[in-house]
Amino acid sequence: MTCYDLHCHSTASDGSLSPESLIARAVEQGVDVLALTDHDGTEGIAQAQQAALNTTLSVIPGVEISVTWGSNTVHIIGLNVDKNNVELEQGLKEIRHYRQQRAEKIAERLEKSGISGAYEGASQYASPVMLGRVHFAKFLVEAGHAKSINDVFKRFMVRNKPGYVSGEWASLEQAVTWINQAGGQAVIAHPARYKMTATKLKRLIAEFKTHGGAGIEVVSGRQHPEEIKTLAKLANDFELLASRGSDFHSPDNAWVELGRIPELPKGVTPIWQTW
């Protein structure tokens, strides 16, 4: 059986492995088809594809776009995108520009709370094109301000805490449109992770489909079996395709490994059947 993992990250965003190391690990883990879906950028794709040339692994060019929908931040994955598409790249460039502004604000707020050197410290862990909250978290742990990355997010990165800056991302329509213009398929990433009521989640999915969305991630890392059943039903109810991805970021997270996630449940239509 072919092993698909259609959601993972490299050092081109907030992952800890380079695209080359990520490919090597995916091969070791028995993955056959891997989508590199770095946050708001496609810089790692060419390296990943080059690294996979002499392996049995197929690399799907992807991206994970940050979206503001109502009061929520949601993530939309693009699979099989043309990374050179002008509309997509311009949209991602705008988001990355905002990410840079947000990073500067996070550093300013941490400075006011008595933590100096946060911007420079976080930059040591970041790629040249993306400085994100995880990089600040790594700095704060290393500097002794927190015990773990999870501790950082609880104590510094949530509303009313020193390092919190609200997100102002792309709209749902923009993200789906950019992906479709780049010849890709749009997928809602880890829908069960958003703190939404069932009614609100259905509204998100309905609007997503109206804009041309193709699928939802029915299976994702760290997911309860009941959530998989619920998402499979939603995929069928809205006549959407089903995707599967680990959302792998680092070997340090032993509970999330490349390819080591449940298979899609019976009765859904895998997104790869349309390829």
Question: How would you characterize this protein structure?
Answer:
The protein is α/β, with parallel strands linked by helices. 37% of the residues lie in helices and 15% in strands. It has nine helices and seven strands. It has helices at residues 19-28, 45-51, 86-112, 118-123, 133-142, 149-155, 172-181, 198-210, 225-237; strands at 4-5, 33-36, 58-69, 72-79, 185-188, 215-220, 241-245. It has a seven-stranded mixed β-sheet. Helix 5 (133-142) crosses helix 6 (149-155). The two termini are 17 Å apart. The relative contact order is 0.16.
- Reading the helices and strands in chain order gives EHEHEEHHHHHEHEHE
Distinct helical segment count: 9
Oligomer state equals: single chain
Shape: globular
Mean pLDDT: 94
In short:
The protein has helices spanning 19-28, 45-51, 86-112, 118-123, 133-142, 149-155, 172-181, 198-210, 225-237, and strands at residues 4-5, 33-36, 58-69, 72-79, 185-188, 215-220, 241-245. With 275 residues, the chain is an alpha/beta fold.
Q: What are the main properties of this structure?
A:
globular, single chain, 275 residues, alpha/beta, 7-stranded mixed beta sheet
In terms of topology, how is this protein built?
Layout: E1 4-5, H1 19-28, E2 33-36, H2 45-51, E3 58-69, E4 72-79, H3 86-112, H4 118-123, H5 133-142, H6 149-155, H7 172-181, E5 185-188, H8 198-210, E6 215-220, H9 225-237, E7 241-245
Parallel strand pairs: 1-2, 2-3, 5-6, 6-7
Antiparallel strand pairs: 3-4, 4-5
